[in-house]
Description:
globular
Amino acid sequence: VLTPSPIPRRPAFEGCAPTSIELAPRANGAILLLVREGDLPALLPTLRNFEHRFNARFKYPYVFLSAPDEPPFSPHFRASIADAVHPGALLEFGQVPEEHWRIPEWLDEDEIRAGFLRQAGEGVQYGGREGYHHMCRFYSGLFARHELLQKYEWYWRLEPGVRFYCSVTYDPFRFLAQRNQTYGFVITLIDDLNTIPSLYKTVKQYVQEAGLTPTDMWDFFTRDKNGASGYNRCHFWTNFEIGHLPFFRSQPYQQLFTALDRSGGFYTERWGDAPIRTIALGLLEGTDKVHYFEDFAYRHDWFMHCPERKEMGCDCDCPAFDTDHVDIDGQSWGSCVPEWKDISSVQWRE
Length: 350
Ligand code: GDP
Ligand code: MN
């Protein structure tokens, strides 16, 4: 039985021509990227694609952040980016502050670095890369405190190498804003267990200590799946995400982040920002605040999502599924779309 909902699954389809929405005021949003100088070759085609599919029309500003253990972006890097995006684009280049990119003082550095070697030996993905641990910690909570983001209300996270295969003809920031929503995703799947052995236990302890009552979304990632109980490891993939910054800057979110950070799991294990994000939304926000951009066509590495029915997207040129373009929604890859459809109040009608 389908439950009707006031939140439509996607905007009313207005055709692929520029819609009236583009004449409306823009949201206070920015495109956010944390990258390395060396990412440039993968970054440029992604920016050209993103501009072609969305931003040449909507003209949102960009914020590029580098890590403080690398030199600031070179003039060549900046000029190459300016060349890849629409003329006159507002480009801001900044750095993550030093204190947000190091093993925190409450942990023993030598012990932690020995732990990275152990993680690498145990096959924990990226477990041996210190920078990756910092990146996950940064995106889990510290990013929302970055000075370049303070003037913005929304961010859309982008990564070198990703592709969009349909045009986005409406403004997804405003789409979320008009529905009073907090967060949007395209891909949801299960995480590797060996990156987060103690995450769920730590979260449950925090829930108890803080006296919190999880929202209706809790069931999304705690129902049994493939024999997994407790945290079933369903999460929104954060390499694409659109988020409402006031939520991520809010006291409840930052307090949860700080508690998790204090426990050390970003370093003693290899907690990703994606499970943290998802669990936080399930604890503090709820299903109605999260939107599945099912009409977007998106690929990260070899995982791809394309709208099930062609008329959902605009001018799509999704490649055929093959070994480099794996259908993430196919069940063998651990997609959590079935769980999401089941749990969300959105009306799913074929
Ligand atoms: P994956 O998507 O989890 O496989 O990881 P990626 O290698 O794509 O990294 C995710 C994002 O963080 C990308 O935008 C990277 O450029 C960025 N990133 C990862 N590690 C580092 C790092 O050590 N320094 C900087 N500056 N960025 C990083
Ligand atoms: Mn990536």
